[in-house]
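Hi Prof. W.,

I finally got the Lipase prediction working! I wasn't sure whether to trim anything, so I left the full sequence exactly as given:
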Amino acid sequence: MKKLKQYQYERYAILCQMAYPGSYFSYPETLEAFNEKLLMDKFERIGVRVLWREHKKEVIVVFRGSISWGDWLGNFCFLPVKENKQRGRIHWGFKRLLSQPMYSSHKSLAQALPLQELLLLILAPLEQAGKRFTFIGHSSGGVMACLFANTFESMYPNKVKRVVTFGQPAFASLGYKRRYQLHNKTYRICCDLDIVTFMPLVPYLFIHVGKMLWLHDDQIYENTPTYARFLRSMKSWLLRPFTYHYMKKYIRNKTLFDKH
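And this is what came out:
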């Protein structure tokens, strides 16, 4: 498995942040170099952003996470259902997201198609132009990135460069995990005690795919078991009041005092 480099992590994290309403103005320069195609939902919100450069081979597809009560209610509908006849079962609430109607920003809601169908139509010309694809997303957007990337890999072998998700909940049965084709290209980023990464809170109902990178106590841990991550996070949380007594907490950026 190739390593995820720092500059790639930072760029993907910013792009995921910019998928949410009101975030664009925080990093306007990030998108300046890209060609862009936006996919809108029925509420005229950006749901997916497709980014590419003419002189680069990488296409970045960014899936937005949940932003409304309706989105979150769907996330809690964790009934296991078949994705198709060949693969194992997945979380129904996330499967439905790839079926939601969306339309390109230069079209209208009347021209909407199921997200997966529309996205395949948009990416096909880029694939024919020799591009490779990175799929990223935060929260439920991370699940969509995994599900769509696996389908795309089946249709266009070796065209997926990587899958990177942030704060992604579990969505796969053991059967689906066994048939997931991108374990060596999938990076699942978890941050400390992010409760969503443990959801749904029913042990072993769903599991994760790919390689986990856990950001905790200023370190990166790889593939830490869920129970160990939970216990270590709780220990850190319980001891936190005492850690503020450590001398390293008093050694801060000197510019804080330059103002006084």
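Residues 138 and 222 are 19 Å apart (CA to CA). Does that look reasonable to you?

Thanks,
D.
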